[in-house]
Structure formats: C-alpha cells, structure tokens
Request: fold
Amino acid sequence: MNAIETSKLTKYYGKSRGIVDLDMAVGEGEIYGFIGPNGAGKSTTIRTLLGLIHLTSGSATVFGKDIVTSGPEIRQEVGYLPSEVFYYDDMRAIDLLRYSASFYDRDVKQTEARARELAERFDLDLKRKIDDLSYGNKKKVGIIQGLAHKPKLIMLDEPTGGLDPLIQQEFFHLLREENAEGATVLFSSHILSEVQKLCDRVAIIKDGSIIRVDEIKTLLETATKRFKLDLVSAPDPSMFTLSGVTDLAISNHSVDFLFHGRLNDMTKLLAGLDLVDLQVIEPDLEEIFLHYYQKEE
Amino acid sequence: MNIFRREMKAHRWNLVFWSLGMVFMVMAGMAKFAAYEQAGQSAAEIMAGLPKGMQVIFGLTGFDLLKASGFYGVLFLYLAVMGAVHAVLLGANLISKEERDRTSEFLFAKPASRHRVITGKLLAGLANVVILNAVTWWSSVYFVGYYGKGESVGHEIALLMVGLLFLQLMFLSIGAVIAGSARKPRFASGRATTVMLVMFVLYYVVNLNEKLDFMKYFTPFKYFDAALVMKDGLDPVFVALSAVIIGASVVGTYRFYSARDLSI
Reply:
C-alpha cells in the first residue's frame, strides 16, 4: 500500500488553477521530494491532502483512506510542518505542545516526553511564551509539534526557512532517523540541494501538474552533462551551435555549457579543439530542474 | 474537550472584564435610582413631560420610575445591548480567529474534524454567555434588592434574565454564522457588530413608528422588551422565533464552515 496516492487530483480556487489532474504515488517508508517554484502547486497539494482545502475533482488516499471521508483518521498518522508557522501568542511553548499532543490517540505523557526530548535536542526553552520566541525558535516548536507524536507520515512544506544551517542539519538527521524507523516523508521545497541531500525519489511539479518523477540517482545520471573546457586559444562561439548545447558561457579561453544529446557528436566537436583541460560533470539537481522546466516551455 | 478548555482559558480575562462591566452597569444604574427616588414626584413629572421620541430613545416608556423594578426595566435595555455586543463579538471571534491569526494551519492539521472544532468553540461561547448572564442576574438581584427597599422583583428579574440569555444566544450564534460563512475572516467581527447595530437601530425605528410594528420580528431586541416581559411574561412566539434563529445559525455555522476552504 502506498502512503499517498492521488488520481487526477484537481484543485481550482474559483477560476485560478491550483493543481490539475495530479497523479502521485508515495510508497511507505520513502523520502519523497516535491520540487517546483513558488505557485507550482506544492502547498495546494499538501493542503488538499490534509483537508485544509477541498478538492475540486479527482481523488486521493493516505494509507488507503480517502481524504474526503477520513480526514481526522488520516491526520492521526500525519505530522505537518508548513513553510510559515503561526501559533497562539499567549501560550508557552510547552502549553502549545501539550495542546497539540491532546489531539492524538497516543498517550499524552509519552508525546510530551518525546517533545521535551526533541526540545533538548534543538535547544529550545519550552517555558518561554510563543510571543517571545524568535522566528527560528517558533520553527523549532513547529518541528516538535509535528514529530512528537511519532507520525507515520511526515509532510513538510518548505520547512527549512528560518532555520540556521546547524539546526537544518540536525533536522535532516532527525528526519532520516524517523525514516529509518519507518516514517514516510513528503518533502516539498524549491531549494533543490535540500531535496538532493534528503530524498530517495523526486517529483518535479510545474503549473499544477507533475512533469517528471524519478529516483534522485536517475535524475542525476540523466544524459545531461556539464562540460567545462580550457583551451589554448579563445574559441569561436559558432563552434558550439551543436544541437543539445545549452547554458553556454565563453570567457577568454574557458567554455562552460550543458549538453544533452549524442556523445559521439560531442567527442567529434572536442576533437577539433586544442584542449588544455576537460571536465565532464554530473549536473546538480538545480540544473536538471531548469533543464526540465526549459524543455516543458 | 481540549478545544473547549483552550477557548475558556483564552477568553477568561475577556469574561472577567465583561462581568465587571455588567456588575458596574447594574450598580451604577441602580445607584441613580436612589437619587431619582429622593427627587420624588417632581422628577417623575419631568420625565413624563419629555416628548415621546425622547422617552423612546431613553427607553422610559411603560415603566413606573419611582419603583426599583421600573427603574431596572429601563436599565435592562442597556444590559441587553452589552450582552448582545459581548455575545456577537464572542461568536464571531471564536470562529474567525484561527484564520485571522493564521493558527488554522496548526489546528486543522490536527486529527479533529471541523465539526469537532466548532462544537468545542460554540460550547465555550455558550459557557461564557451563561456565566455573564449569571453574573448579571446575581448583581441585578443584589442591587435591585439593595435599593428597592423590600420590593419583590425576583420573578421579574428572572424572566428578564431568561430573555437576556435568549438574546445573548441569538447574537452568539449570529456572530458565529457570519464568521463561519465569511470569505475574509478578519472582517467577521466588524460585520457581526454592524448587523447587531442595525438590529438595534431597527428596535428604535419600530418603537418610534407604530406603522412599522411588523418589523419587530427582524430585531431580537424587541423579542424581550422589558416593559412587556415584566407585565405579561415571555412571549411564546418570540421564544420560539429565538430558538429557530439560534438553531438555524448554529446549523449554518457547521455547514458553511465545513464546506469552505480555510483561508490560510
């Protein structure tokens, strides 16, 4: 059984497009990346799965349960951290975490103990009022309230904003630990290096639809390569009009470009150059992402 | 129950201030009775000599102001307005504040249905208005008894307080349904208060113009008019109409709030 499965899931806000015919399957135990720029439909997908907004058409299940009819049951198993966190300013952090724990079937004391453990790990003073916490510390409260009840599915919508690099690293360690214990993670982000670090598979979303789903490894092994050349003399730019060359940058004796095409054609081109150095590099996810976006356009 | 407890705690100071306000209103109002009573018949004649419009505006019609019960009858209109303002703001605020303060993404990602959330909030609203009503009741009995020098008014106050409770529940549920159906929750409190004020103005319009008597059904302030309640008791038609308005508003709150997307 998949942790999340959607079939032609569609959400319109009046006439504005949210997501259209979105098909997605996230396996249990996976860390699934969900990447796309702002407005592509990542938050809409997550909010629809959580029942915060209602779908327009299509269907979706979480652990086999329908999101329309089984919302509270589904959310019993879900931990959620949104991109921006807002809590009750009059509460202390510990009160908010107790309030959060009171919604779950799991023993409140166990959840509170786990919350205290996580607070210590993230160096968060639970006695302070929410109103007095910095944004980064509020985000820590967000992480703890989302994970203290040991959810089977962790949904993260651009979760790292406001977290300093050390805390981000600790957060990623925590997610890997939760995943090792069986939790499924849906990680939405537009920061591709984060997805690259954490996820097993990734879906690229554009204009409300998923345009590609692949293992991170496969995406990185895509035929697109970055070429960096150092030449004896300044090259003639017209030599690089070969089909499949993009993102071309020529500076003095150096040439930098992405290539997606027949490598034989490229080696013929390279054979005609007076090379000092040649590097063929796997492109990072950012470049692959841009590549898919450009291709779609 | 956790949502109910959370709301009770969140509104505790608000309830304390409103309760103190009600006690002060009753105390200050009835203290004026002591001065008025001392002036005796001459003050009553001055009041009786006021034009009808002025008498309506001050809510003086139909009361013997030389008796503590009559003076309390005049005061009741102001207590009703205070109770209505408290209830309508409370109803609107309870439902709209999660979206207004952007805590809805936290609350509704928890395993609680929207029905459960609304139930917890409406029960907290009910508890708040009942407590405010009880405080008003207690302070009315105490201060009217204190200044009334033995006049028996317990029964009249009880009837008025039941009327006040109906009025509070109506405005609580009206505030809730306005917030529940609002596309922009941050404006819900303002809209709910406007609706209440329009109904209050309508109360005066109906009192000033007998030809508009049929419009009394559109303003809950007319349902429990102190002069009529103290004379004839609660009107079953208005009691039934109040129950219908409360029921329809509560059902509407559940329906509208559950059907719409949360404003995040």
